[in-house]
Amino acid sequence: MDAIGHTPVVRLRHEGPGDVEIYAKLELQNLFGMKDRVAKQAILEARRTGELSPGAPVIESSSGTMALGVALVGTSLGHPVHIVTDPRIDPITLAKLRALGCAVHIVEAMSAAGWQSARLERLAQLMDELPGAFCPQQYQNPDNPLAYRALAAELLEDLGSLDTVVGSVGSGGSLCGTSRVLRRSLPGLRVVGVDCVGSVLFDQPDRPRRLQSGLGNSLHPANLDSTLIDEVHWLNDHEAFAATRDLAREQNVFGGNTSGSVYQVLRHLAAQASPGSRIVGIFPDRGDRYTGTVYDDEHWRGADLTSQPRRRTPVRVPYGQEVTAWSCAELRRRQEPRKLIFVESNTTGTGMLALDKARELGLEPLFLTADPERYQGLAERACETVRCDTNSLSAVRRTLRNTIRREDCAGVTTTSEFYLPLVAELARWLALPGNPPEVAALCRDKARVRRALADAGLCRTRFATADRPEDVAEAVRRVGLPCVVKPVDDSGSVDVVRCASADRAEAAARSVLGRTFNVRGQRVASTALIEEYLDGPEYSVEMFGTGDETICVGITEKHVTDGPHFVEYRHVFPAVLPPALAARIETVVSAALAAVGFRHGASHTEVRVHDDDVSVIEINGRPAGGMIPELVRLSSGTDLLAEQLGAAAGLSVKPRADQESWAGVQFLTADRDGVLGGFDGLEEAGHLPGVTHVVPTAQPGRTVCTPRQAYDRLGYVIAQGPTRADVIETLDRASGLIRIRLTDPVRPGAA
């Protein structure tokens, strides 16, 4: 498999202007063809995510190079391979598949939707008959276009720059995957697709008896992202076959009809190109499979190919006009909104608000969740909701493959800390904006963040980890007392305890080590982080990465309970700080984000200031929770949540950091354990000048307690004012008007 890729780029001769360069990327030099890349990517990814178990069958529908690629990769990894094809398969491909040990299933007749549909029906039967089987699903699996990242990188390495890329279109993978990556470095790149007459890919009527293979389709594959393609050319069978023979005669390249079709368009574009242009065509397969068709005069006569017209130059037509010979059209740009995929969200505050913000940005939210009932207000939003196991990467990927077309995807995001690594995996898989998965995973592990900061010279706080109860005593000894014990991978101050004695630290650590799942049912690391307790004021720094720069949106003043538990009960934005200290905090946090590799979107970094030093406590690779984004909006006009959604969708963002006023939030908490009976004084508090929100988040009947973690908060009040003092006074007055009614819980056995 290491021999897949690294194919040569050769410069072709042409009759156009001498300073126009045309190149062929010879994908036909892969072991079997271009689809070797797709088979390798899809099968290795399925094994990595657990979708394909060792020794399980692999099934694919193909009559050409995808079948050979799956055979190559699947059999080499020890998987039985089943290929579903149709009578159009050429004898050479059939012989290769059988020689590699594949089971080949040939459908006998077309369905009403053509050969592709008939093959897919047989494939579905095999999936039912072979439990545990995996299908690469080249038409809808994002691993198909993702496989061409390497092709794009090879072009950039070999050529440096190019103006136009030309590729055939069948599943949509190669041209879309290559051009999507190229445009990140070459935003002005022109992308030209090549299709065949009688294919439905670009809104033409289906003609199932077309003779070309390797391009065209009778179905609309989900991997085709027409928003990436500027122009499409259609060739009929006569034109494609003749161009393939021209390619062999004129350039000494023995290619298949896909390569020939690309060559036809390539030399036309070269003749029309501006001086100094550089144009590249992707040549998918070689000609050995076509010796009995493209290169056989008898086949030409039997198919009466020469009765079809053969144009020497294309006719430009309006998009949507039916064509019968070489024609081209500019693609029509879509008008309907694209979808922003949400994987779960936080359960209060910004979670549901984000769905509304997405619509305000012209995006259509698609909400993936394991439990829609978890979210108060979701049903009222009439948001498209899909239920799936969001704790399983393979389950979410499978759901998206079967739910959405790639060209409909604008981005993928979450407002929940727990799903950041999964969202990063999906963004990479779908080639959407986001931080790399390894960065998201690093930020979720507080111990790994500590080590990364220490390696960068940014952490002087003593810390240690414990994976077993017997490791705790030594860890506490190394850190010293008092210390803080916390899980390495939880959120919301869960099991975060300040410990003044070794016995208390050991008990707290044992509690962390004894937990195997978090509140979302995800398996946790069961590792305790023991770190030095730092006394001093706490702040959070709201930063935003654009990829090119990191912008400080502002610093939040945080109020935390005295301990032993740390629960945030008030935030004020922005913090009032001496300019030198504010600059020092920003410098430290910028360096910390660089140390962990965080460059995209909003981040929320918690710091403590002690002994004239700034220490990073946590880096959260997401927007702040605790209604801080709303405080930022009220104070500065910067809608941090909208900016984050825009960044996820690839929109142009650059948050402002201009302060106009102050804003604060006060969380409502119980002063004793009990059962919540309700709230009094909410309406009076809401009528106070400066109060913008009074929101109870807990329902009557819930058992509540004095705050030990963020989930123990029962509601909040938000206020806005011209000064910090005004905001503090308003929050104090409003919270003083609100009374939380509690009743004692009924004890077991009580009358």
Task: Give me some keywords for this one.
alpha/beta, single chain, 751 residues, elongated, eight-stranded mixed β-sheet
The tally of strands reads 30
Please estimate the helix content.
25-40%
Sheet with the most strands? 8 strands, mixed
**End-to-end distance:** 72 Å
Principal-axes shape call: elongated
Strand content: 15-25%
Report strand order across the widest sheet: 1-2-9-6-7-8-11-10
Poorly predicted tracts of residues: none
Number of helices: 22
Using only CA atoms, what is the Rg?
30 Å
Overall average pLDDT? 94
Task: Output the structural class.
Answer: alpha/beta
Topology overview:
Elements: E1 9-11, E2 21-26, H1 36-49, E3 58-61, H2 65-76, E4 81-85, H3 91-99, E5 103-106, H4 115-129, H5 143-146, H6 149-159, E6 164-168, H7 173-185, E7 190-196, E8 231-235, H8 237-251, H9 257-272, E9 278-283, H10 297-303, E10 315-316, E11 327-330, E12 339-343, H11 350-360, E13 364-369, E14 384-387, H12 393-401, E15 409-413, H13 420-429, H14 437-443, H15 446-455, E16 463-466, H16 469-479, E17 483-487, E18 497-499, H17 502-513, E19 528-532, E20 538-546, E21 550-560, E22 568-573, H18 579-596, E23 600-610, E24 613-620, H19 628-636, H20 640-648, E25 662-668, E26 674-680, H21 682-686, E27 691-696, E28 703-704, E29 715-721, H22 724-737, E30 739-743
Parallel strand pairs: 2-9, 3-4, 4-5, 6-7, 6-9, 7-8, 10-11, 12-13, 12-15, 13-14
Antiparallel strand pairs: 1-2, 8-11, 16-19, 17-18, 17-19, 20-21, 20-23, 21-22, 22-25, 23-24, 25-29, 26-28, 26-30, 27-29
Helix pairs in contact: 1-2, 6-7, 8-9, 11-20, 13-14, 16-17
